[in-house]
Amino acid sequence: MKNEKYKLLRQGIIYDVLGMATMAIPVVGPFLDILWAPFAAKKMNDMYTGTEGKIASVFVFLEEILPFTDIIPTFTLMWLYTFVWKKQPIPRTIKIRVNE
Question: pLDDT tens for residues 23-47?
Fold first, then answer.
């Protein structure tokens, strides 16, 4: 589980860097965002399943398609939300032995 968690972080950082790299290309960059936005949304939905993944994929699509928002590291923020900020309680099971 721990390796899978950090694998998602590595993938997210790579996708964030690729999304930001289009800003470095002066004329072609905005047009590359048109191609990158649906791909990034699909990857976000694949990486994070459920309702939260779908919401995050909409956010990453909008972030990539809108001008001057490429600087936002959406994949990394989703990883932080999932594994740091959204503290889910750890289920604890208690075994009780009954002597009969």
Answer: 888 888 888 999 999 999 999 999 9
